[in-house]
């Protein structure tokens, strides 16, 4: 979403001049007065700009007036140029403005998206009345079509649908008799969400931990074990893992129920399947290795900071920053359910409802669920962008 | 003492020409004694040393060979049904057993592998090419064009891929082409984004300035200067994209939109095996093992490739 705008996209395109600059936290104030840059910091600056172009790109510093063209210094450095400008930067007003702006952009995105999906869905051949009930007499089918307004031209249906949507009405499902879309979501979402959250809560920390261990024990057996687990996690498709787990634990050993969603015992296998895919520490390992070679780690080591503290306070925190970016879509995906796991374990979640709705051309249900998914994803990305500013003080909203 | 004497003897024996400067010496010092190493041969040299990644490459090669020649070793063709020999366990005659219609699973697994690999490779190459071009244009030109392209990508990424996959499959029917197209539609956005970020970093470098000063057209700068500089990332994302496409194809088979019988694919075999796994577990386990193996091999290969391209991360 507008994530890109807040970070990379918002970066000004410096017309062919120098690359980005990301001052070290310590050096920020020393760097700021551009005219009086100490010599050793000039060197530092060049090294930094070469080393961490990508990082600076992600964090998106912004250029201010009065600086040499093409320079991008993080807001903190700029703020220290004139201390009085420090306050509006930190105050609540720009944040509020940003939130409001993002909110409206999100609404617009959602609207465009719903429009696109509406016409995509309606351009699928067939309609919900004739697709399954070929046995119905023609007059009845026409009556049903008229009842649901499907005999109208598509643009009229479109206006009708969006008029209803703005009033908060998502309509009735065309396949489930007398059920509103909202009630389907109300019923299925908690199931998907609890499955997804449990999977996430189990798998994500393990993945991160594996990455940390692998990076700390680089080249040693522990590293290889962590990498192998990570590669297995992305190499074994969930539907295969699910079937094999079912075969071992339910059919052969008889310890756990094969399927359904009735209590804690029923959740173990699907949650593990869900979590296993996330036990991938490879990106965390890469970020950790990137952080290890930074100067502030050397400084910490030189100061005599003990190993454990160095890993968790200095490396882990900084390595987690880029990880946060990926969390948004991950959470959104986990909460809104995965069709495969829900089907194999016959869990009545949203993913299953969604696939059935699209395949059965249940226009209203498919539309409602798509909008719901998209809103969730947009919201999650938004939250991540805000959280990013919280966890990394160098990030400033533009 | 003795050896000094001998040395003096040797020096005195030498003709006076031996003490003249060698006219050829200059030229010989300039000769490059080892073969020239360009970027890719350097990568290959590092890659070869990586035993894990080489294992991945060997497994991929073996699987490709099996897919090409495996069906020839089977007793019957992949679509030959024989109800008398249905659901046979693996044996000397049918190495992987037979399915519920008595078709030989060895033949089916390798014929299915052809489909899966072809879909995987094309389905990864097409969106990568498209994504690279879109990302390159977007990153190079920047400004409004970039803004529009990025917003479009944002919106497309929010649409669940199932909708346009079904749309394409319903219009084009089921077969390899619609599946490849449908999967390609879902895969280009990520590539476009990462290439855009990289191009934005590269375009302020001096070589681009030089190219522009020499009057190259923007498209030439993008295609000849910027994209080759992204080739490392492109190759890695390609090799890591292939297993995910194979997985997506399996996923489509799982929801009943994949390759239709009697043609087969690994995903379809695993799906059919999943229906009967309580009685005939081998029908699930064999295709599953092959899928896991190929995913593993490609992931190992891609990882090794990334390490060889960026040795900074490795040591």
Alpha-beta content class of chain A: mainly alpha
Estimate the strand proportion of chain A.
under 5%
What level of helicity do the residues of chain B show?
Answer: over 70%
Main pleated sheet of chain B? none
Q: Report on the biggest sheet of chain A.
A: none
Q: Decide which structural class fits the backbone of chain B.
A: mainly alpha
- How many DSSP-defined strands of chain A? 0
Mean pLDDT of chain A: 71
Total DSSP helices of chain A: 20
| CATH evolutionary superfamily of chain B | MetI-like
Structure overview:
The complex is a heterodimer of chains A (398) and B (315). Chain A has 398 residues and is mostly helical. Helix content of chain A is 68%, strand content 0%. In chain A, helix 11 (181-216) crosses helix 14 (264-276), helix 13 packs antiparallel against helix 14 and helix 17 runs antiparallel to helix 20 (363-391). The longest helix of chain A is centred in the middle third of the chain and has 36 residues, at 181-216. Mean pLDDT of chain A is 71; it is low at 1-91. Chain B is mainly alpha-helical and 315 residues long. Chain B has one domain: Orthogonal Bundle (MetI-like fold). In chain B, 72% of the residues lie in helices and 0% in strands. Chain B contains 13 helices and no strands. The radius of gyration of chain B is 29 Å and the shape is flat. The mean pLDDT of chain B is 81.
What features would you highlight for this structure?
heterodimer; A: mainly alpha; disordered N terminus; B: 315 residues; mainly alpha
Helices and strands, with pairings:
The complex is a heterodimer of chains A (398) and B (315).
Chain A: H1 3-6, H2 28-31, H3 39-51, H4 53-59, H5 75-79, H6 86-90, H7 92-123, H8 128-132, H9 138-148, H10 154-166, H11 181-216, H12 221-235, H13 238-252, H14 264-276, H15 282-292, H16 295-303, H17 307-335, H18 339-344, H19 350-359, H20 363-391
Chain B: H1 2-13, H2 25-30, H3 39-49, H4 51-73, H5 105-141, H6 143-158, H7 161-172, H8 176-202, H9 206-213, H10 218-229, H11 231-254, H12 266-275, H13 281-309
Helix pairs in contact in B: 3-13, 4-5, 4-13, 5-6, 5-8, 5-10, 5-11, 5-12, 7-8, 8-11, 9-10, 11-12, 11-13, 12-13
